[in-house]
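Feature request disguised as a bug report, sorry. It would help if multi-protein outputs had a clear separator. Right now it looks like this:
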Amino acid sequence: MENPRRPPKVLGFCSFRYGLSFLLHFCNVVVFAQNLSLSLTMVVMVNHTEPQSLTNFSANELPAHMKNPVYDWSPDIQGIILSSFFYGLILVPIPIGYFSGICSVKKMVGSAIFLSSVVCLFIPLAADLGKTTIILCRVLQGIAQSTVTTGQHEIWVRWAPPLERGRLTSISLSGCVLGPFIALLVTGLICQSLGWPMVFYIFGASGCALCLPWFILVYDDPKDHPCISISEKEYITSSTVQQSSSKRKPLPIKAMLKSLPLWAISIGNIASFWTNSIMSLYSPMFINSMFHVDVRENGLLSALPYLFAWIFGILAGQMSDFFQSRNILSLLTIRKLFTSLGLLLPALFSVCLLYLSPSFISTIIFLILIIATVSFNTVGTFLNALDIAPRYYGFLRGVTTFVGVMGGLMASTLTGIIINQDPETSWFKIFILLSAINVGSNIFYLVFAAVEVQDWARDGEQTRL
């Protein structure tokens, strides 16, 4: 008799659930590439050498026929423009998380991808119209990305068997770091060859094209999909039958607020978002300030960490499912292990960057390790909410994402202020603060984390609330 936990006909990359995971992967690639590209184009969009009265001219280092407007935005204005993206992020995670449990995730995520792509196409014109317009575009991009990253998690409540959660989630979420890699890798080349406006036109058009397969191929529930095999459909539905409830009941808000395991997840997210926001938005600026490289080399150097983060994220998903399926480690140990790797290693390498990186090569190595090791948290705090409350997973992902984004917003804004006020020692302060937040958050998570379904997340007849 076949083992129901490992049916040979439904496992493997040829199954439809893996196809869905890869499609989500590419959606995340495009959306994150669209939103991150501004952090590198900002290097050539800002006038560092000409009088501030000249707000728009063709960059001399590029071919004369290429249009490259340059603007006199001060460092604090640049920080506001870059961080305004987070103001969009904080507006929608909670409502999107709630409605993802009762509305069509397919329509929500697909519409958000289209919105992000259209706004990306509008960025060059928005920059010409003024600071206010480009800030508004960044807010809209934040709303769109938050909808994509928050809403997609509800898909795995119905599509991911418990022993494959790590793999399917890590494959889809690894697009969130492959997107920055591609953006940083090609943005410098596009800027020098075609002009920086083409960066936004190319990524925006790619997102519009991706919407077509999304709306055709994706279904909210495997039971409704016309193309999935019967064996795979039975395997998925039988293994996920108890992960959600068809009855929608009022949210146990008071119990959630008192839940220390949920607070542990939220605080872990703060640290992850803090690290990611600083490294994604300011690593090109850090490299430029330390080594004064041109935009193409800056893009290549800034992209390398995300390639390794992509690899580490996929490996983390494979390893966590391997440990769980072979009963090598308990689920709680797995969550604590990968959360600790995702928080403590970036803190360690941040300190090493300050004290053990006298050369160009060692600096780049530590930058790579800081960003890459954050990906271990994909199967740590990012997936932990599905363990403790599967029937409220979409809403809790929205809540924990909101809390994390608040940390990212504070990190990006504070970093811009520190750089503007104290250029001499700014990076020392930034990385020491990053390390302290990661270590403190990890200690809290190790003490209060849990993987058992909480009483307030059980079905009505089982709950004591």
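(second protein starts here, but nothing in the output says so)
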Amino acid sequence: MRKMLLAALSRVLQGPAAAAASRVVVASRNYGDFANEATFEIKKCDLHRLEEGPSTTAVMTREEGLHYYKTMQTIRRMELKSDQLYKQKIIRGFCHLYDGQEACCVGLEVAIKPTDHVITAYRVHGFTYARGVPVREILAELTGRKGGCVKGKGGSMHMYTKNFYGGNGIVGAQGQIFETYNMAALWKLPCVFICENNRYGMGTSVERAAASTDYYKRGDFIPGLRVDGMDVLCVREATKFAVEYCRAGKGPILMELQTYRYHGHSMSDPGISYRTREEIQEVRSKSDPITLLKDRMVNNNLASIEELKEIDVAVRKEIEEAAQFATTDPEPPLEELGNHIYFNEPPFEVRGPNQWIRYKSVS
């Protein structure tokens, strides 16, 4: 009997269980061989009214790199899924996608505090995710469902969470932005103004729209930085510099992030009537923010190709599950149409689709 048990145990140790155990041991040993951190040379920022700027070297830990990679890859996949849902007519109305610009929102978010306030315009999905809103709530908001981050009543252009006021339909109109610069400078407000220069205003290139494309100098008396917005480390270091400048009581500062959007201005814009497919492909092949980070991590022994592929698989699974929720969650009832108009106000009546229908608005 004892011999039979030993023989059975021997077969188990030589079978699939042993192979699995072996793989676990090998994987553990490989992860232990990775570097904890690496130092990278990054592009020098152009400066306006500043004697010195951000560092031209950046230290990135393995943990930070994996976080940046997963976050940017999640935003990329979320936007591609949004594109698919829009073309299936599941997402309706306006939809402005962020793929290609992921390094901007991720680099900004990791350099500030959760208690800092962020206000942005309508290309907002990436910022919403970076600020901590789950993918399922973002996609559910896009499809107009109760589980959306604004309960299905905001859509692509109006997403909010704590300390985040996103999706404003009006961008920095020229007269208003200069008045704002002036007020911020007079009062020395701790405000970082950011221009995400993706090279096109709707369907017009910056070169055809502006005699001077040095947007980081547009603050005039406000100091400015021009930053490589396709490099998450460059954006991170520049943002650290900018927020430290503001927290020191020196007043506002302006950052221009030079980036690129892969989709058109909105889903109604194919994005190839005013630029060529070759131009888009060249940016993808030479400057893609996710590929740049991936190459840095692999080449500096911060991660393996296989490990990053595992992240890709997990991200795709998360996006598919979120899309399933966003297409099956119920729409908000009409009774909630007038809710949340004001904060912390007593309930009041709101007229419905016709004068005989009344809804009660609650905060």
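Even a blank line would do. Unrelated, but nice: Residues 1-29 have pLDDT under 50 and may be disordered.
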